[in-house]
Amino acid sequence: MKQAPKHPVRLERQGTIALIVIENPPVNALGVAVRRGIAAALNAAVAHDKTDAIVIAANGRTFPAGADIREFDMAAQEPSLGQLFDLIENAPKPVVAAIHGTALGGGLELAMAAHYRIASSDARMGLPEIHLGLLPGAGGTQRLPRLIGAELAFDMMMSGNQLSAGICAEIGLIDSVTSGDLRSEAVAYARTLTEVRPTALNRTHLMDGGDYMATVAARRAQVKADLGAGALAPLKIVDCVEAALLLPMDAGLQLERAAFEDCLASRESAGLRHAFFAERRAAKFPEAADAKPAKVERIAIVGGGTMGSGIAIAGLQSGFAVTLVEQGESGVNAALEQIGAFYERSIAKGRLSEAQGAAALTHLQLTNKLDTLGEADLIIEAIGEDFDLKASILAEIGAVAKPDAVIATNTSYLDLSALAAATGRPANTIGLHFFAPAQVNKLVEVGVHDAASAQAVMTGVGFAKAMGKTPVRARVHKGFGSGYIGNAILEAYRLAADIMLEDGATPAQIDGAMRSFGFPLGPYQIADMSGLDIAYARRQSKPRDPDVRYVEIADKMVEQGWLGQKTRRGYYIYAEGQRTGVPNGDVLKMISEHRAHKGITARKFSDRDIRDRILLAIVNAGARLLGEGVAARPSDIDTVMVHGFGYPRSRGGPMMDADATTPSIIASRLSVLAPEEPSLWAAAPVLTMLAQERQKFADLN
User: Fold this and answer.
1) Which one, of 371, 362, 414, lies nearest residue 538 by Cα?
2) pTM of the model
3) So which residues are the catalytic ones?
4) DSSP code of residue 633
5) Which residue among 199, 247, 346, 401 is least packed, with the fewest CB closer than 10 Å?
6) What pLDDT, in 10s, does the model give residues 557-578?
């Protein structure tokens, strides 16, 4: 990574225009050194009797892209962002912000504190704090509605979306857009202001108090209806925007700061910030010390089913040339139909234009010939989970791929080391485990086995990042099968749920308890959606551990032909064309008969019992993955669970939840919940393990 210069802010002069230049790579974050540098440069510029106006600009790829989030949990250091922006706003000489790249969060608040704003035509602006459970805390909630009005200000802050420079100019957020040299244009613009004295903030959008307050009231009601009273940051944003009209600027800023501190102290914000940093830590692979990603321009995918077609779409959307190989003409046609349907839907919904859809498809080659793989830089095998079939196909791929090509298998649970050996070039073979739907889900587990080269691993990581995915490392070793994090967690999750199902709970009750916790779907809704036959085939293909309780209910359902949504009958019954169902009474009867046959007396479970059993099982599985070295960090497990399985992002992830729970609480819940299931619940070392792994990471970083 490029190191920040010793002095991240410098003051230059272009005649009577003072130029404050920020250089704090990679994104010019507004850390304390930058804040102090800007303040010192501004004071020096104002004190110079030859200064007529001031331009604030940045070197590198972007205007400040936000505050330094790492400082949120540290003791405050002056000047704060708010103090700095007050200094800029109250400067006695005109200040112009020259915006390029992305002005986000504190970066946009810096620009709004300036008296004028000019942006390059490709610049983008936004206030994404809501994604961290926060609100703009350095004047954004007070200055933005004054510039663009309450309705548009709410839209920007509640969504966190980025807007183009053109749109920002249309709504009044910036004063000018240029396609030329931004720095020169900004200095020229500043020269036109030499006879202008800075005035109070634009208050035109605060003039009609009746309409403004009606907008505030409507947005408050909408937030409460959609998100509930627990939606702290959105409700605080409403309060702050209301204050922009009702209170003097100084009082409004004080209220905003108090609201920001309340949000910062919330469990939701802590979870969201943890998830944010966890994603970035997950992308740091140790192999990066020895190799860099090789260039990938053309990818090839062998297998055009749902997963293979999804990977192909993701590749096309990211600008890769894609070769998709499927068996026979009928297979090729089926893959083309799936991919074509995606683009038709995207065009119909306005996500893509017809021209964009057509352009993407020009980069797709569909064939049933494996010998077309010789031009690909990266080849992904994505056929069904049959070891012999995969090994055979991978051997053929190894024979035709070019010498430096990276080969990846999308296996979700088969032995990666053995599959890599089948290619004849294990050093160039890795795992790339995409999560469905591959064209949407951001998670990719990168399987690393002992023989894999650092070059192959980092090429896989680079490819995942180029597709906008979040890569997570999973280390495979002998005796641990595929070694993937997600499947090990999912097995523990499903086993905990199935034991409760057998012991007295219902599918709907378990699903409801997990939805109320924050999962988008419960485990049995997901099973119906995925198809019960998929998991059944996997269970039948692997030996059972005699020490682990086995629940046969799902097997009996498959044997009855109840496969979920695909047969309109699973744990739920589905009407034609419907994705939500009603409980299947036949399944409830089957479960009751099953219990009677096994001599199980049904017991009652509270929603808390259900939630805690499942979460403790997940955490226990995570601790085992850390102990085995499959997962490098607890936060990697959190990233997999958030992106792969819908764990509520606002909680950070299961390992963060475990960190927030005292050992005595875990011990007491274990003793109450399932003392008879030691193989599932032997989680005594969980917190110790987490503490050790967290300390290791801290020592390394």
Assistant:
1) 414
2) 0.85
3) 109, 129
4) -
5) 199
6) 999 999 999 999 999 999 988 8
